[in-house]
Write a sequence for this structure.
């Protein structure tokens, strides 16, 4: 009996581990583009779902951004069907909000979310790899947007609609998904956008990471992925601390919400700044920049009678012993 290819064994194990806690009879939805990562994921899910008594479906999104994209989508769906998944193709109008990458991503995730809710999927499985995680961390570092962006992509996340997003391959290198497809005789679609240097992620993939590997030695991608994992652990601990603290220091105000200045001052800067960002986000949908957060913090740490601070969707002002956030 021939031995199992190591790449196939590795990816099947990653998928089996990700699906192990789902009850028998559950439905999982796999996002399939036709690229090596999604095909390797689909093939492994098709194999493992039978052993775990799960039903597997796939969804391929035709963004309509390239000539012949409909044929690519049909071929990906046909391949998914041959792997034991129930395939579906959806064509979307991408639009242009936030640039082509962001617009395509938003459209794709919207369709996946709707489909998952329609079929009652226990999880949506995405084919992001360790290399994707490393690229995400580097892009977050370049933006300078703090630990949140450096956490990368979560292996498991549940959104506000109750849809569970799972990335079984975050510990798997991209070269392994290609090896899986080669060993399985799966025809891989090469997305031309993955070679287009107009996109920042492509430049990171083709230029930045290879230079880092060449100059600093191998293992850079794995180190970046470990950094993301450690920062997510820190963030989870901070979130628990914030929710334990915030109930005692926040009160509803006439036109917004107020926070005890003394309590904010008593907390370390990292926790204080997270509380400020959480209040602005949860109450007003405002995503504060680092500069805006520090300006609000100065109402506590460096109070000298300064006036209200304008923020996205709200303002913050010192009123007696409290910092009051008011809708604008």
């Amino acid at each position: 009996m021939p031995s199992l290819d190591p790449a196939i064994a590795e990816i099947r194990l990653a998928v089996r581990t990700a699906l192990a806690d789902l009850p028998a009879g559950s439905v999982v939805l796999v996002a399939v583009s036709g690229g090596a990562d999604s095909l390797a994921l689909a093939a492994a899910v098709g194999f493992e779902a039978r052993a775990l008594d799960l039903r597997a479906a796939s969804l391929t999104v035709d963004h309509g951004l390239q000539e012949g994209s409909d044929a690519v989508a049909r071929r990906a769906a046909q391949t998914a069907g041959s792997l034991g998944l129930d395939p579906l193709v959806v064509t979307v109008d991408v639009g242009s909000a936030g640039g082509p990458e962001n617009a395509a991503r938003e459209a794709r995730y919207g369709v996946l979310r709707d489909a998952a809710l329609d079929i009652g999927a226990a999880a949506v499985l995405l084919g992001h790899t360790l290399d994707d995680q490393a690229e995400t961390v580097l892009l977050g570092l370049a933006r300078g947007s703090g630990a949140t962006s450096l956490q990368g992509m979560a292996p498991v996340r549940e959104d506000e609609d109750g849809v569970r997003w799972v990335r079984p391959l975050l510990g798997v290198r991209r070269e392994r998904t290609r090896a899986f497809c080669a060993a399985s005789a799966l025809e891989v679609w090469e997305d031309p956008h993955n070679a287009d240097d107009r996109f920042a992620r492509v430049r990171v993939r083709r230029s930045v990471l290879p230079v880092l590997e060449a100059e600093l030695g191998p293992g850079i991608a794995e180190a970046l992925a470990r950094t993301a994992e450690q920062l997510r652990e820190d963030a989870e601990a901070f979130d628990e601390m914030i929710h334990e603290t915030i109930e005692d220091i926040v009160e509803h105000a006439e036109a917004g919400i107020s926070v005890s200045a003394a309590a904010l001052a008593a907390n370390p800067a990292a926790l204080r700044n997270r509380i400020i960002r959480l209040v602005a986000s949860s109450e007003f949908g405002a995503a504060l920049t680092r500069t805006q957060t520090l300006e609000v913090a100065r109402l506590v740490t460096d109070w000298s009678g300064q006036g209200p601070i304008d923020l996205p969707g709200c303002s913050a002002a010192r009123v007696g012993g409290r910092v009051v956030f008011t809708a604008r």
Remarks:
- The radius of gyration is 23 Å.
